[in-house]
Amino acid sequence: MSGRLSCLLRGLSGLLLLGMLLTGCGRGLVIDTSLSARGQDSRVQYVILHYTSSDSARAINTLTLGEVSSHYLIDVNPPTIYRLVDENRRAWHAGDSSWQGRTWLNASSIGIEIVHPGYRDTPQGRQWYPWDQDQIDKLIPLLQDILQRHGLPPERVIGHSDIAPQRKLDPGPLFPWQQLAEAGVAIWPEPARVTHYQQLLAGQTPPLAWFEMALGRFGYSLARQPGQTDATRNVIAAFQMRFRPARYDGQPDAETAAILAALVPGSFAEIGRFTHLAEPVNDLP
Ligand SMILES: [Zn+2]
Q: Which of 67, 87, 113, 212 is catalytic?
């Protein structure tokens, strides 16, 4: 029996006729796309950068056959860009994550994995592998293209360690965020502002509660597991890895405060709410 005849016979019953209309039953479904709503934007709100912490063959195997995936994979030697998941679909790269109040960011982000070994722990301490400029030269135009197509500003490009600071370190302290910022695909604090705030602080470290307020306003989640005591330290370390990679021990200090103040407008003027500085401090206009 042909599909069309079967469709017709089933349609003799009133109930099934309704079903036929609802399902379109073959070729009946017609949608007029001549109208379009002005109120819409991309489902993509963030671009999340990762390293694979493995070599190319293992990364390809994991990301194509495993439980995790990413929209793009930037290989090395040669630095090929693979698209593994269509941008309209969800890739499984972010996991339990949060940024600017949004959570579980797989649904609202594009994930880019870069083949890179990450670090190795040695008796002398943790050693991070340097980045391959050929891969960064592929990444930058890819980010420019993604941001342009989805109408996103450069601050929407963030690292896995930003959205999951309690459990992730990628893309790590050697990742060239400043170079990305110079190419317009990430942000970096304005040096003059950092210097200005450092001079105002004069070596004084604001209270931890101020750091938590400003880090939260920047985007980080300060949520902690019951009984966890190092949650804020992990968030400060994630921020330092990205913007002050020379030292990312998670300890609050005046330089970190100045960088944070330069990135979070209005936050410096609020230090007084958290402390009793002898002199009133003025924010930049
Ligand atoms: Zn990651």
A: 113
Going from the Cα of 29 to the center of ligand 1, the distance in angstroms, rounded, reads 42
Q: Which CATH number fits domain 46-182: 3.40.50.10190, 3.40.80.10, 3.40.50.280, 3.30.70.1120?
A: 3.40.80.10
In the chain, CATH 1.10.101.10 covers 191-278
Q: How confident is the model at residue 276 (pLDDT cuts 50, 70, 90)?
A: low
Amino acid 4: pLDDT: 55
87 catalytic per annotation: no
User: Cα of 34 to ligand 1 centre, how many Å?
Assistant: 41
The pTM score is 0.86
231-264 confidence digits (pLDDT tens): 999 999 999 999 999 999 999 999 999 999 999 9
Q: Are 87 and 100 in contact (CB under 8 A)?
A: no
